[in-house]
Amino acid sequence: MTNEQSASRRGGILAMVAACCIWGLSGLYYRMLAEIPALEVLAHRTLWSAVFFAVVIAVQGRLGELRAMLAGRGVVVVALAALMISTNWFFFIWSVSNGHATEASLGYYIFPLVAVLLGRLVFGERLSRAQWLAVGLAATAVALLTWGLGAAPWISLVLAFSFGFYGLIKKQMSAGPVISVTGEVLVLVPIALVVIMLSGSEQGAGLARLRAVGTEAGLSWGTLALLIGAGPLTAMPLILFSTAARRVPMATVGLVQYLNPTLQFLVAMLIFAEPVSQWHGVAFPMIWAALAIYTLASLGRDRAERRLARQSSTEAVLPQNRRNEGSAKP
C-alpha cells in the first residue's frame, strides 16, 4: 500500500468514526426538541434536509443525476425508500423524546442481523452455520425480552426492519447515497409542508407558530434553529459515510458501525438515566454475542474470498508467463 493509499484509508476511517459518532449522539440533539411533536420534528428534518442536500448537489453540478433518478418508474422506488427511512426517523425521534432510547439502540444492534436474514429470504444469499447461529441467538434474545416484559420490543423491531427494508430497496438504485437520499427527502417535502402547516400545539397551528417566531404564540428562536439544524445533522454524517465507504474495506465499515448503537445505549443509560430491566440485562449481552459471532464469521469469509481471488489471479498469470517464455525460445 502506497503512502497516498494509506492516508486515504486513514481519512476514510476517521470519516466513518465521525459519521457514527454523530448518529450515536444525535439522541442528545433530538431530546432538546422533546416538547415538539415527533411528527412535526420529522417534517422539519425532512424539509431542511432537502434544502441542504439540494444545495450540496447543485454546488457539485449533479442536479442532472437527480432528475434522471426521479424520471419514470424510478420515482416509485425512491418513494418506497422514502417511506422506509421516514418511518425509521420518526420512531427514532419519538423513542428519544419519550424515554425509549434504550429500545432504539437495541433496534440498531439488531439491524445487521435482520439485514442478513432479509438477504437470505429475498436474494437467496447463503449463510454459514455461524451466521445462522448469530441470527438464532438474536431471535432468542428478542423472544426472551418479549416474554420477560410481557410485550414485544416493537420500537426496536420497527427500527431494525424499516432500516433493513430500506437497505433492500436501496440495492435496486444505481444512484449514489447522497443523490438517492436527496431524491427521497424531496419526494417527502410536500407531505412535510402539509404537516408543518397543520401541526401545532395549544398556541395554534404550525404555520402560524412559524410566522410568530420569538413570541409567546410561536416557536422560540432557539427551537426554530434546532429544527433547521436537523437538516445538516441528517446530511453531514451521510456525506461522511459515503466518503468513507469508498476508501475503507467493507469489513471495517461493518465493525465501526457498531459504534452508533453503542453510543445510543450509553447516552440512554448514563445521560437520560433510562431504567434497564433485568430482561434487558439478559437480551443485550445475547445480541452483543450474536454480533460478535456474525462479525467474526463475516471477517473469516471475507479473508477466504480475498485469498481465493489472489490465488485465482496468480494461477491466471502463471500460464501467461509460461506462454511468453515459450514464445521467446529460438
Secondary structure layout:
Layout lengths: L2 H29 L6 H22 L3 H7 L4 H24 L3 H23 L5 H21 L4 H17 L6 H22 L1 E2 L2 E2 H6 L9 H25 L4 H7 L2 H13 L6 H51 L2
Antiparallel strand pairs: 1-2
Describe this structure in words.
- By secondary structure, the chain is an all-alpha fold.
- The protein is 81% helix and 1% strand.
- It has 13 helices and two strands.
- The protein has helices at 3-31, 38-59, 63-69, 74-97, 101-123, 129-149, 154-170, 177-198, 206-211, 221-245, 250-256, 259-271, 278-328, and strands at residues 200-201, 204-205.
- It has a two-stranded antiparallel ribbon.
- A hairpin with a 2-residue loop joins strand 1 (200-201) and strand 2 (204-205).
- The chain starts with a helix and ends with a helix.
- The model has no long low-confidence stretch (mean pLDDT 83).
Biggest sheet features: 2 strands, antiparallel
Strand content: under 5%
Q: Could you tell me the number of beta strands?
A: 2
List the strand order in the largest sheet.
Answer: 1-2
Spans where pLDDT lies below 50 across 5 or more residues: none
Helical residues, percent: over 70%
Order of helices and strands: HHHHHHHHEEHHHHH
Structural class: mainly alpha
Rounded radius of gyration (Å): 23 Å
Q: Tell me, what's the shape?
A: globular
pLDDT averaged over residues = 83
What is the CA-CA span between the terminal residues?
39 Å
Number of helices, where a helix is a run of at least 4 consecutive DSSP H or I residues = 13
